[in-house]
Amino acid sequence: MAERSTAAVDVADNSGDEPLTAQAARATSDGVDIQNGRAADGPMPDKDGERTNAAPAAAPELHSGHKLARRYRLEECVTRVDGFSSWRAMDEKLRRAVGVHLMPADHARARSVLAAARSSALLGDPRFVQVLDAVEENDLVYVVHEWLPDATELTALLAAGPLEAHEAYQLVSQVSQAMAAAHREGLAHLRLTPSAILRTSTGQYRIRGLAVNAALRGITSETPQRADTEAIGALLYAALTQRWPYESDAYGLTGLPKGVGLIAPDQVRAGVHRGLGELAMRALANDGATASRQEPACTTPDELAKAVAAMPRIRPPEPAFTAPPEYQHTTYQQGNYGRPTPPGVTTVQGRPLAPPPPPLQSRTGKVLKWGVAALLIAALGLGSWQLADTLLEHKNQKGNSGTSNNPKPGTDDNPKEAEPGKPLQITDVSEFSPHGAATKPKDVGKTVDGNPDSAWITLQYLGYPKFGNLDERRDGSGIVIDLGKVQNVSALDIDLHAAGQEVEIRAAQASASHPDSLSDFGQQISKPERAGKKLQVALENPVLTRYVLVHLTELPADGEGGYRGGISEIKVIGPSS
Hints:
- By secondary structure, the chain is an alpha+beta fold.
- The chain has two domains: 20-310, Transferase(Phosphotransferase) domain 1 (Transferase(Phosphotransferase), domain 1); 422-574, Jelly Rolls (Sandwich).
- It has ten helices and 26 strands.
- It has helices at residues 20-26, 110-123, 154-159, 165-184, 212-217, 224-241, 265-268, 274-283, 301-310, 363-401; strands spanning 32-33, 38-39, 44-45, 51-52, 67-68, 72-81, 84-91, 96-104, 131-137, 140-146, 152-153, 197-199, 205-207, 219-220, 243-244, 254-255, 347-348, 351-352, 422-423, 428-432, 456-457, 477-496, 502-507, 523-530, 534-554, 566-574.
- Strands 19, 20, 21, 22, 23, 24, 25 and 26 form an eight-stranded antiparallel β-sheet that branches. A six-stranded antiparallel β-sheet has the order 5-6-7-8-10-9, covered by helices on one side. Strands 3-4-14 form a three-stranded antiparallel β-sheet.
- Helix 6 packs antiparallel against helix 8.
- GO terms for molecular function: protein serine/threonine kinase activity.
- Residues 1-62, 317-362, 396-449 are annotated as: Disordered.
- It comes from Streptomyces venezuelae.
- This is Serine/threonine protein kinase.
């Protein structure tokens, strides 16, 4: 289901809230805490010190068709609550859909929303829905963020049923690792609900509303790491059981029975993966749960990510195989249409088996057998005579001349071994990143420093070996070599950081200047191939170029639940003369 919004569907809220009709039914505007089902009258302390501060300011009265900064055209209001509104809009400059949060500039939380949006934008982690703009203009504060039309909310996935074990494993692995990275940069989410988690069509989980969703609602916490960890535990619990791990119903999920407390997932639903169920209890231990194996509670996203990595990896289910129906020859296909089977003829599945031909016992048959035998004997004799004659002639020639007929080295019959080429001087290296910012620009020099123990290493990508199937990495990555001037390239000697990478070598045309897209490297030196830790490429005909691309198109598993690759050393070699 695509990520979009109408007033009737619960999955439509691109800001992390329920639709307006659902909010009215559950009285969120009157102060009901959706996540924990507790009523509030004004500012209310939440679990673990989280506080929600009310803001009485009203949302700006805007309408579809209104433009912000002469660029963002508002199209559909998806949320209007607590003094702010959220819209689906169109960026007319780049012709793409975006999401927009709007509030009056004098709103009590306007300053904190701007600060949270700008901090989130600086993180630049592709696992989060990116903040594109944060502006105060004409008495309005608005935050523009990505809109993912092909993504599905976790709310919608859970409405269809619990996730199978591998999918739940991917969810907790990707979300915990992403939140651990955010907390290392000092950023918390504080509103990790099922509507904040999006699953893209490529299987990647992305998190929206980092810092911003909490700022919009005035949510704070004295223990932000613990709050986010428990929220991830709640998401995993819901993914395994299709139940919300609190007594109140929330996000279209039924809560637990009242008065029994938090019970293990395998007691709620049969067939739950035991390891994942225990992991959910360890993350929810902050709310009084105890792990079944007496393992310590996970109180930070980093601890949870390490606990996931320590588990045996859960592989995807094998695809069901259905044997094709057995192919039956029809009577028409057998060439017997309308003909009755003669008596005494054996049949298999209705198909008659022709009797073997009679042996050649007649006089003609005997003559034919003896003729074939004579021809075979004559052929063998002729071949033997020719072989003997050739050997004798060779022996006589050698005896008469007293020398061998072996050609001298360097002749056309035995050419000299090719002399090794000369290494070409490399004047500059850069990271190949055509659709986004470079990820490790400071490390590219390690690929030509002469030290095979240092390396340029990619980020870790989750879910898929082709750079996580992220749009901004759809053309892979790699290293661009600048030789300083146009030269003949005859070979490359490359040390790779890890075995199992899919690598190809490309070169730009001799006339190219500062190539930065894959189409700029039109000369293919080697096709994509799975390589070990050493890759050597030799060309029959040298290629004239200044720029060479060592292109990584697929990464190997890194043993930590993700995919990662890299390049240790590159040598470009020219002809020997």
